[in-house]
């Protein structure tokens, strides 16, 4: 399909091209526009029927959006801005450089401009920054028939009509009603008698993570957003929440690998930003790890007298780190999904105690068999390594399971208690256990 | 609110209790039932009006569902099974032990039993295992008015009525139409003329991750599921996809921490399962790490002659591992969200080259200042450690950025190229670089 489009574009067969384009899904057209070069992109975009062009525009990358805005007339810009859903417009404006924003604002009406400025001021990652203003509002004294007529007349421009919002004269939210209920109810029933007054809602400054967890908990497809005076100012729809969920997960992945979280895509992020996000934690962990080095320094004579001991340091440190990271990852994820609460502290401790016992036994046996029988290491050294391995795994898993819960208890983000930090802590623990065992068993 | 419910329950004031309960959201009632003990849970459940009881049931944990099924009459079971959405019923049956399943199947009609068996046979994580059969089907020769009448009559029992499916006599999917379009269109228009024929759909055996990415790409709220003969057999709705997205993310977190993925919640998983999921990777990594140990063994004389070198091994290994994990995490996540493609290989290499250069310089300088001026380590040793640190960071970040893409290229899961494996690889690299630098600079 795409080859056909590209061929028609090359041959400047624009009439045929337009016919092919309008048969496609807007998302796929956007994909094609992303692939061609700048001038061709503008040609393709301008071939689209006006309404379709707006939808396609909302699916383009910021880079391509800017390219198009720079190439079309003020009148075309005005049309796009009028037809874009408000939340898509805000997302777009937020990413544009100042001169583009100026050009856009010039082409919007004064009252809308005020509204845009208000939306641009909502904090990043707040409910306000996610919401749209295109929703259906009803009055409680309407009948079902009147409500449906109202939806028929105004619904086309709304982002969703499947949940309608019942408000009073001062825009205070009184209830919600689904289109499903309206369609399946008697036409002469009053909205007031059938609306749902037990509404789940959020405020403009609530954090997006909290909003997403309400969607998950109550299986919502939209949620109303109220201002400080409890007036309805917008709604958030599920498609934006899906993006929020992925964004929050990405941030957790980044934090758990010891980075400052960012919502800029990897390939779009500047080298400087990427470096900056990574350096802080690397520095902290590097300096912490030198303390681990001190432990080795302190036991220098032990290493000098039984040099083979040094050869097992990487294995003990790595296995301890891995064992601890496994536990901390499960607990951090459980906390994020609210499957584990801080009150489950002792449940986690006991669980990790039992799991680490099994894991410790299995790994220790395999290790002993390997180094004593295959690598022919002296019995006492083999024993020292094996006992250290067992104790390290037990401690690593318990520490790894417990630290994220403690972090949550102290209102810290549990995600910092992930692999990098756990590894650093466990390394130190492993070495202390190792040298203590060595001095006892080998009698050094 | 919950305190009031618990007090009424204790005082056996059931009439008042029922009045309080019916004012609550079903999700919140389910939360309360989870908190009280077994016999109280059954009392609360039985106080609920029949329809509400079914909704509440679908939000309960498997444990509490089983407890209730074991305590109510066959007739009550029959009612719940009839009223549950089909996908919720399948999810529930899949988690129950055999004797409960038997009890349930005894209470369902024969044709439904056949359907249940068919659904239970869809592979885990397939579209078939997610879909529900409660959707609205229309014929293309209906008018809008007829379609709305049909929805009015049958819509109450459907999981969603917001997207309707147009099928022919043999149930082949001919198009879809949204309720929004039906409500905002002229009543005498034919469905055929206004339906959307460019339908995004999946097949029963497609993987849930692919289904979720279609929802994200096209901002869907439902998707039709076809069988091998292209007949419509069910639909998947967005609420189930939100769960799939979280489940896929959880699996990625688990794989990236070196564990077998599982969708059982941490607190529900048995100790044996948890241990089993963790041991395989720990064993592989433990044995790999012993090869790292061999490197130390080979350079025993170097360590013997300059014993202080051993003290920096943990810092070099840890920093290298952390630097590599940062890069691999970003790239693995980028691949999962389809922000990075395999064709971006060289873009990633160049980016990591530049980022690691900056990061390497900063860390090396800090490290040199610290160990030479503060720890007063001999200049040549300080230089050896610093140069090793720089080279290790460069290599770690490039290896970390590149391995996930290579894995994807070879159709392996990029998530295995995460922290544990990268750490093991980078440890070996770091030690080889370290001892090579040491022999050159210190002239050992």
Summarize the structure.
The structure is a homodimer of 444-residue chains. In chain A, a hairpin with a 5-residue loop joins β2 (163-167) and β3.
Question: How would you explain this protein's 3D organization?
Answer:
Two copies of one chain form a homodimer. Chain A has 444 residues and is mainly alpha-helical. Chain A folds into three domains: 2-121, MgtE N-terminal fold, CATH 1.25.60.10; 137-237, CBS-domain, CATH 3.10.580.10; 271-441, Tetracycline Repressor, domain 2 (Orthogonal Bundle). Chain A is 66% helix and 6% strand. Chain A contains 22 helices and six strands. Chain A has helices spanning 2-10, 14-21, 26-35, 38-47, 50-59, 62-69, 74-83, 86-95, 98-106, 110-120, 127-130, 144-154, 179-184, 191-194, 208-218, 238-256, 271-298, 300-305, 313-336, 345-374, 379-409, 419-441; strands at residues 137-138, 163-167, 173-178, 202-203, 222-226, 232-237. Chain A has a three-stranded mixed beta sheet. Chain A has a three-stranded mixed beta sheet with strand order 4-5-6. In chain A, β1 (137-138), α12 and β2 form a beta-alpha-beta unit. Chain A is elongated. The N and C termini of chain A lie far apart (76 Å). The model of chain A has no long low-confidence stretch (mean pLDDT 90). Chains A and B meet through α12, α13, α15, α16 and α17 of A and α12, α13, α15, α16 and α17 of B.
């Amino acid at each position: 399909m795409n080859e056909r489009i590209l061929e028609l574009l090359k041959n400047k067969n624009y009439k045929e091209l337009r016919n092919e384009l309008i048969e496609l899904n807007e998302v796929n057209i956007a994909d094609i526009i992303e692939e061609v070069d700048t001038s061709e992109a503008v040609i393709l975009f301008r071939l689209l029927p006006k309404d379709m062009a707006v939808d396609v525009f909302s699916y383009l990358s910021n880079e391509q959006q800017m390219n198009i805005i720079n190439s079309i007339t003020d009148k075309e810009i005005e049309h796009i801005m009028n037809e874009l859903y408000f939340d898509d417009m805000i997302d777009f404006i937020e990413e544009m450089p100042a001169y583009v924003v100026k050009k856009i604002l010039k082409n919007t009406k004064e009252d809308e401009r005020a509204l845009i400025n208000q939306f641009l001021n909502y904090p990043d990652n707040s409910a306000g920054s996610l919401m749209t203003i295109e929703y259906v509002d009803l009055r409680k004294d309407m009948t079902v028939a009147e409500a449906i007529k109202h939806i028929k007349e105004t619904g086309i421009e709304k982002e969703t009509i499947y949940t309608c919002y019942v408000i009073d004269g001062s825009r205070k939210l009184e209830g919600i009603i689904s289109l499903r209920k309206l369609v399946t109810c008697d036409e002469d029933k009053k909205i007031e008698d059938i609306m749902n007054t037990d509404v789940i809602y959020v405020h403009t400054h609530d954090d997006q993570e909290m909003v997403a967890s309400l969607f998950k908990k109550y299986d919502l497809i939209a949620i109303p957003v109220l201002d400080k005076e409890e007036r309805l100012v917008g709604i958030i729809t599920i498609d934006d929440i899906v993006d929020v969920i992925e964004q929050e997960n990405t941030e957790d992945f980044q934090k758990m690998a010891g980075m400052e979280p960012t919502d800029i895509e990897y390939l779009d992020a500047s080298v400087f930003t990427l470096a900056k996000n990574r350096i802080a934690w690397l520095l902290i962990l590097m300096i912490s790890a030198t303390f681990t080095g001190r432990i080795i320094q302190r036991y220098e004579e032990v290493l000098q007298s039984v040099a083979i001991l040094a050869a097992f340091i990487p294995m003990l440190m790595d296995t301890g780190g891995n064992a601890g990271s496994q536990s901390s990852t499960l607990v951090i994820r459980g906390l994020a999904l609210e499957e584990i609460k801080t009150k489950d502290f002792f449940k986690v401790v006991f669980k990790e105690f039992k799991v680490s016992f099994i894991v410790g036994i299995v790994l220790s046996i395999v290790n002993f068999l390997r180094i004593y029988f295959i690598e022919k290491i002296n019995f006492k050294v083999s024993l020292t390594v094996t006992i250290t391995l067992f104790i390290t795994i037990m401690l690593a898993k318990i520490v790894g399971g417990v630290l994220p819960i403690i972090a949550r208890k102290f209102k810290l983000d549990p995600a910092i208690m992930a692999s990098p930090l756990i590894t650093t802590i466990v390394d130190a623990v492993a070495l202390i256990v190792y040298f203590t065992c060595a001095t006892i068993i080998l009698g050094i």
